[in-house]
Amino acid sequence: MMAEKITLGKALNHGLRRALESNPKVVIMGEDVGKLGGVFRITDGLQKDFGDQRVIDTPLAEAGIVGTAVGLAIRGYRPVCEIQFDGFVFPAYNQIVSQVAKMFYRSRGNVRVPIVIRIPYGGGIGAVEHHSESPEAYFSHTPGLKVVTCSNPADAYWMIQQAIASDDPIVFFEPKRRYWEKGEVDLDGDLDAAFPLHAARIARPGTDATLLAYGPMVRVALDAAKAAAEDGRDLEVIDLRTISPVDYPVLFESVRRTGRAVVVHEAPGNLGVGSELAARITEECFYSLEAPVLRVTGYDTPYPAARSEEEYLPDLDRVLDAVDRSFGW
Questions:
Q1: CA distance 223 to 237
Q2: Backbone CA torsion sign across 225, 228, 223, 298
Q3: 277 close to 246: Cβ distance less than 8 angstroms
Q4: In this predicted structure, what is the pLDDT of residue 3?
Q5: Of residues 80, 78, 72, 36, the one with CA closest to residue 57
Q6: Residues contacting 69, CB < 8 A, separation 6+
Q7: What is the largest CA-CA distance in the chain?
Q8: Is there a catalytic annotation at residue 131?
Q9: Average of pLDDT values for 191-211?
Q10: Which residue blocks in 143-300 are alpha helix, DSSP H?
């Protein structure tokens, strides 16, 4: 079968469907995931086809959703929890950090909790408060959790299946403003042959500087690289894909070749993912660097009202300005 051109949201839907078909122990649970198909329709049609015992509409209680998932996982199920919006995850934060992340360690490796926690995240959709946040650093800082994020439909399709098949608890961030962007997806491919879940990917090869991004910012980085090419600069773009654990060898190899690195993410810069990336790159690639590692991030403020969000979000101009500053050293 030829690859199909579908949206990122539809790719996630197909990936969830394939996981439900492949393993009867997979269950999906969350607010409005069943009859409605989720606020972004990512689970559309799944309850109709698999029943309300496997695609479960829950009360509006995030702590209850994740707490129930812990019990299900201990009993051999593979629950997939949907948190409706990024800012709604915090009522479940105690369960995720105190239970989900600790169970394997607490049991001396005897109890696994193969839970996937899906979180639509990031801005750019004109939403109200608590609907546009980027809380990935909270979970990346927590030992025992793996944190991944897709940036395109093909990765969305494969990564959600890989996450569900993993025995580790995974926080799966979905860039909500990219839900409607289309790309080629081979829906009949072999999961075992898919690109590894926790591996970074070179999204665009280049020689002059390295742009590091993930999730919604990969598109911005690619657009910046395309614009920079008009000025004769050849920028390499790396899609992290997994935020914890980071695939550092791919990053280090790239920066050693280019001599410059710019990290891009939506979350505030203070103590963000970019801070750790900059520190590690500086430590490992010091003698290859022609300039300090620079960061382009959201500002250290609460996420603004919709009418101001374009002033907050990193964009092509801010990324290109950072590249110019890097070359100015």
A1: 10
A2: positive
A3: yes
A4: 85
A5: 36
A6: 29, 79, 81, 100, 113, 115, 117
A7: 60
A8: yes
A9: 97
A10: 153-165, 217-229, 248-258, 273-285
Half-sphere exposure of 73 (CA within 13 A, CB side): 32
In three-state form (DSSP H/G/I as H, E/B as E, the rest C), the secondary structure along 65-129 is HHHHHHHHHHCCCEEEEECCCHHHCHHHHHHHHHHHCCHHHHCCCCCCCCCEEEEEECCCCCCCC
User: How would you list the strands of the sheet with 26-30, edge to edge?
Assistant: 55-57, 26-30, 78-82, 116-121, 170-175, 146-149, 242-244
Residue 204 CA to residue 243 CA, distance in Å, equals: 19
Mean pLDDT of the chain: 97
Q: Which of 14, 131, 198, 265 is catalytic?
A: 131
> Which residue in this structure is represented by tokens 């950090």?
97
- β-sheet bridge partners, residue 120: 174
Q: Find the angle CA(230)-CA(235)-CA(240) to the nearest 5 degrees.
A: 140
Both tokens of 77, joined, read: 């199920």
pTM comes to: 0.97
In whole angstroms, what is the distance from residue 37 CA to residue 48 CA? 10
Burial label for 202, CB within 10 Å (0-12, 13-18, 19+), is: middle
- Long-range pairs, 42-50, Cβ under 8 A, ≥24: 42/9, 42/12, 42/13, 42/16, 42/82, 42/118, 42/174, 42/179, 43/13, 43/16, 43/82, 44/13, 45/13, 45/17, 46/13, 46/16, 46/17, 46/20, 49/17, 50/20
Predicted confidence (pLDDT) per residue in 54-81, tens digit: 999 999 999 999 999 999 999 999 999 9
Residue 286 CA, chain-centre distance (Å), reads: 28
β-bridge mates for residue 175, sequence order: 121
β 201-204/55-57 pair status: unpaired
